[in-house]
User: Fold this.
Amino acid sequence: MFTSAELLEQINVYIRNLGFSRSPEELYEPISYVLSIGGKRLRPVLMMMAYNLYKENVSEVYAPAAGIEMYHNYTLLHDDLMDCADFRRGKQTVHKKWNENTAILSGDAMLVLAYQLMAQCDVRLLKEVMELFSETALEICEGQQMDMNFETRMNVSEQEYLEMIRLKTAVLLAASLKIGALLGGASSSDADNLYKFGINMGLAFQLKDDLLDVYGNPDVFGKKIGGDIMCNKKTFLLIKALEYANVEQKASLESWIARSSFVANEKIFAVTQLYNEIGVRRLCEDLVESYSAKAMEYLSKISVEDDRKEGLRQIIAKLVRREA
Assistant:
């Protein structure tokens, strides 16, 4: 079996060699730029790891794996535009480096390219793969709309938030694993358990992101710390802080949320201090551990030799410990 590091190198080489010979250049240059920035490539690596549980010739899924990465980066390109983000992975976002119209159009092209790459799979499984991919893409849009709806609401519940991140983040990890398993010839039971493994991994992954946005090291995290606080984003931390705060703490939180004029560092420091007083960091860390444990339960049900699952176990462990 291949290690995750070996699979990462293989998909990086494949993506670097994709090339775009079509014109106009102005449409494709931002796509090459986005893909060149790299990143963890978690989704294509998971697809290849799931495939590799059953088959060794992972080159057979290079194209679909690149497709899932192309799709993920398309969502990031549009997310950055909607969030008015200046940086992604320490580099300028496309709408900052070029302009907003370029970000929209190049993103649209990335979506089409993602479908073209995903369709380069075993023709016998094409319908099932494309139906799962399309359903996942639609769910991600639903999750993004929920996230946008939350911007104008103060009464977002924990369950609503968890459903939003399931749709916006977890389903793509889950689909990556299930598509890889299906293409590898897995049983429907194994494919479903890998999907559930991915859902729980995705929930843990996004909750860890919530933590890192407040408590991470900006040099490692790749973007400014406190962005969620600045935007009053309804993260698990803010939702639970509003739920558990005493009268004085809640009044202070709501005051910072309501302000249209403030010094950024002062707001980030003040809200972080409130989070510390209320104890929401520990609540979030506990939930990360809980979803990670659930993911491991589903992984244990997969009917392949235990040592073949080691790479996926390591992914979960790294996710919980990660700083970026």
Observations:
- The CA atoms of residues 220 and 234 lie 23 Å apart.
- The first helix runs from residue 4 to 16.
- The longest strand covers residues 87-88.
